[in-house]
Amino acid sequence: MTDRPADFIASFMDDYFAESDEHLTAVRRNLLLLEGAVDGEAPAPVVEELFRSFHSLKGISAMVELKEAERLAHEMETCLGLVREHRAVLSAPGFEALVDAVTALEQVIVARRAGQPIPAIDDHVARLAAMCRGARSHSESTPSLLRDAAAANTADLWKVTFTPSPDLVARGVTVDSVRARLSSVGRILDVTPRVTGDGRISFDFQMTGVDDAAALESWSDDGIAAERATVVPPKRDAEGEPQPPLGVRAFDAPAAPANFVRVDLVRLDDLMRLVGDLVVSRARLEDALHRAERFVPSPEWRALQEETDSIERQLRDLREGVMRVRLVPVAEIFRRMPFVVRDLARDNGKRVQLELAGQGTEIDKFLIERMMDPVLHLVRNAVSHGIELPDERVAAGKRPEGTIRLAATTVGETVVLEVSDDGRGIDIEAIATRARASGIAIPDNGLDPQTVLDLICSPGFSTKAHADRESGRGVGMDVVRETVQEVGGTLSVDTRPGLGTTFHAVLPLTLAITDALIVHAGDRTFAVPQAAVHEVGEVDPQSIRTIENNELFTHRGQTLPVVRLARLFGIESAARSRMHMMVIGTGLAGVGLLVDRISGQREIVVKMLRDPLVTVAGISGATELGDGRLILILDVAGLTRRLRGRGSLARAAV
Amino acid sequence: MQTILIVDDSATIRRMVRASLGALPRTMFVEAASGLQAIEALAVSSVDTIVLDLNMPDMHGLDVLRFVRSHDRYRDIPVVVLTTRGDADSGEAAAAAGASAYLTKPFSPAELASTVTEFLAAARTAAAASVNPRESSR
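^ Those are the sequences you sent over. The predicted structure of the assembly is below.
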């Protein structure tokens, strides 16, 4: 039959995956909207959009010869077609079958993408087919859905005519933009194209509820003519059949603008690397300039200096611009969560409401991908361990329905992801008991949140006697924290018995280039990512007290454990009368990092150390300075983590 | 120079159609993602052939086809309709509405290219002749 060469298909697989992702995202969103309408009147626009998504998925899956996806999409399209034509009502089992089939469809596409065997789909197809047995729909012959019939008998009618032309299109005035504009001043009932007497094409918009007639009349320069209409437009009668009253679509929701481009992440990485090279070159230039300073007359030197300063500013703008291109809304992570919560709550007999906040918050594409599983795990934990069963909640004086909140906010150069629940809180006693049983020493005065986190993030640590379905998924809390730390972030927890638990992950906006402080210990130089540093100050080493081998410093009325960078890495360094201290971390997790001096602040290009053989505790990567020297970047989160054990003991001794 | 209007709400399919027809000489492509956009494209560009999807938002492909066939100015433009496998009756519906040919997704790039080439040539040599609805051989 067809002769689509393999390389023709192969060259469209990326498009296929990207577009099917978009459709699946829309499907998930719409299925959630549909869930509330099970056994009742399904909202027509939702059904319509679902139908269309499945139809498109069917078409593109057929083109790339992914037959399993084509079949699943076809069956679901058929079911939705029946609902759309009011020939069937969506029942609860039907809805479950749809949700399961969507999951299967997703698995089929994921398997194809990963080059793995395609999972069997026959059960899903049979289940769907059984569901819509009886009335097979002829979906493609349904008339177009160009009308908002529900409001078609209102009195206040306007006829707005738009006549497109090449000039208007060049100015961005198109039928879509006009439609969006008209939607902002009233409600569009219908659009009909027609050919005018002079042979041009016009679009007639029937409108009602126009609240700004002046605006309508002021757009005549854009090919828009408005007049009051008195007659209700006759119903169009496609193929002589009565128009079913169902497929009505609110015309006020214009199609999403198509002014997006898709870019391969690899190309953006290349661009970022080039910007990184530029940053290094500029730093070299500045170094060379400083060496030349005494040979150049001062007015000329000042001019040079001003030029490199402006290059630096422009470079920073360029870097930020490239970085912004890499940013995507965290909504990508959030979107699938309602599904996960819904399924898991059902399986566990719990009632959970999911709140999402800050979905527009943007974060690096790479980070989004890395954070997907950890956030998923935190949300699963919140449902299965955090939220109590409805009767337990009622007994505790709470609403039977628990709330899980997933929030994202931008704070400076970081993004904070928060997963919180109003459940029972982490059972600290159980954790202490379990830790003691494993031979871990626990201070008598209880556990601080950081230690609790350390314990629940230890590999294999579980207070459960047996692994349940959720904990058997291969991602444990240890992996969650490891992933957060790998991308240069920090994880913390706040838990209150009976009130709930909140996990905060503080993540860098991007990984490639960052601001850093250049610090010295002995003859060594290090870079410290500035986002991790809370405060910088000069201290007199004399003011540091030593208690039981731990050095402590009083800072802003609080006792901070002090760590000497030189001692940490076994670097020889002469005693000094003044040293610089950086305060890293806050509150109980705070540590003072003592260095000989801080010599400046620079933009650095981060080269991650990925080779497991050269991994050094406390070092996260390397960077090149302007003079060509390679220096190491401190893994501040890792350092404080290692030191905090000592810190908390020290505090206990105070 | 000839202009082919590609109408499909799927960006992937539009790219595939374009790639299939990419080898045609002196050809420009105009794309539309909805029925309304397709009509607008007719208004602002001079279109020689339309490759048309049926199931689209806002305005169904059949309505676009009917619009084209009911106005003198556009009546003779060849329209190759793309239907989707499994939607059994839409081919006949398209033929009834005046489709010049219809192909079923998954379509063959070579078949699409030869169909479009044939119509373009026919339209050039016999601009006045009306186009008979015909079904492509599959």
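Confidence is low (pLDDT under 50) at residues 134-153, 232-258, 465-474, 646-654 of chain A. Residues 298-326 of chain A form the longest helix (29 residues).

Shout if you want it in another format.
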